[in-house]
Design goal:
By secondary structure, this protein is an alpha/beta fold. Helix content is 45%, strand content 13%. It has helices at 16-31, 88-99, 110-116, 132-138, 164-177, 179-189, 204-207, 214-226, 233-240, 244-255, 259-276, 281-288, 293-300; strands spanning 4-10, 36-42, 46-48, 54-56, 69-72, 103-107, 124-125, 143-144, 150-153, 156-159. The protein has a six-stranded mixed sheet with strand order 2-1-5-6-10-9, sandwiched between helices. α1 runs parallel beside α5 (164-177) and α12 (281-288) crosses α13. It is elongated and about 60 Å long. The termini are far apart. Keywords: Signal, Transcription, Transcription regulation.
């Protein structure tokens, strides 16, 4: 399968972390075998960053397909210049890629480039909190969403900037390659996998991966794959080479849940997805591993995270 190409558009005074955060996430995903290929393009071969580090970029754009992604990292912008530092050719490429079915993303002030290309019209978007008022006034045909990490609207993905570019990239990896892939990338990068954009991004795989316990991660790896199967505590303990008591203590300390509670939470989330797409409660319960629908109904009736019955 052809790797997904991520094309970063570099502009003068680009912020290193706006670029490096998502670039590292996609590179790590590729190192783990998830199939990404990164390219860096600009309107000049050398681009000076806001931090004074010069970068080399390609002048010629690679061949891109609708499954690929264009990312515009932000640039130094205590206040925005009257015109974004991208030329008409780049703006047209952004428009054409989106029109062909592709996705376009921005980090921080990169949203200004998307707005100048007309891609924010009629869509929700976000940016760094210092720029929200200015961009909201500049692009009144769009809807500014404040105080969130990222917003996804019709294949236009905007993020708040700086470190939130990592959250944006992890979300896109989760969408493209699955939540388990995003969790592995986050773990490799030693970051807390929040995934909380403006919509409910409540993946249990990621919400309970914000710890540094290797043992708990290994147990979660097993449960994530086999959540619909019967997983006795003795089998889990045997797979990771510790006693049941040690496993329960370490896992609960790291995640706040027992292994059984974590498994039930995964089952519940998957069942809710199936029900939301028209599956009956009974069929959803069987699919996720419950013997009948009673436990699923019980878990759905609770307002907090599920506990063992």
């Amino acid at each position: 399968m052809r790797p997904t190409r991520i094309v970063f558009v570099l502009v003068p005074k680009v912020h290193l972390l706006d670029l490096a955060g998502p670039a590292q996430a996609f590179t790590t995903a590729n190192d783990l075998g998830y199939g990404y290929e990164l390219s860096y393009v600009a309107e000049s071969e050398e681009v000076m960053t806001a931090q004074g580090v010069p970068l080399r970029a390609q002048l010629d754009w690679p061949e891109i397909e609708p499954t690929d992604l264009i990312v515009v990292p932000g640039w130094r912008s205590p206040s925005l210049s009257p015109v974004p530092p991208i030329g008409p050719e780049v703006r047209q490429r952004l428009r054409d890629h989106h029109a062909s079915g592709g996705s376009v993303a921005s980090v921080c002030s990169g949203a200004d480039a998307l707005g100048a290309s007309g891609l924010l019209d009629g869509r929700r978007f976000t940016t760094h909190h210092d720029l929200t008022d200015e961009l909201a006034a500049r692009y009144p045909r769009g809807t500014m969403v404040r105080d969130v990490l990222y917003v996804v609207d019709d294949r236009i993905i905007t993020s708040a900037g700086i470190a939130s570019g990592i959250d944006l990239a992890l979300h896109l990896v989760a969408v493209d390659r699955g939540a388990e892939a995003a969790a592995r990338v986050a773990r490799q990068m030693v970051v807390y996998a929040r995934r909380n954009g403006d919509e409910l991004q409540e993946s249990a795989m990621l919400r309970h991966r914000g710890h540094l316990s290797d043992l708990a991660h290994r147990v979660q790896d097993v449960i994530d794959v086999q959540y619909a199967e019967r997983l006795p505590l003795s089998d889990l303990a045997g797979q990771v080479g510790v006693s049941e008591r040690t496993l329960t203590r370490i896992f609960t300390t790291a995640t706040g849940l027992t292994p059984l509670r974590y498994q039930q939470l995964l089952r519940l989330e998957r069942a809710e997805h199936l029900i939301g797409h028209g599956t009956t409660i009974e069929a959803a319960a069987r699919t996720v591993g419950f013997e009948d629908a009673r436990m699923l109904r019980r878990l759905r009736s609770r307002t907090t995270e599920p506990v063992a019955g």
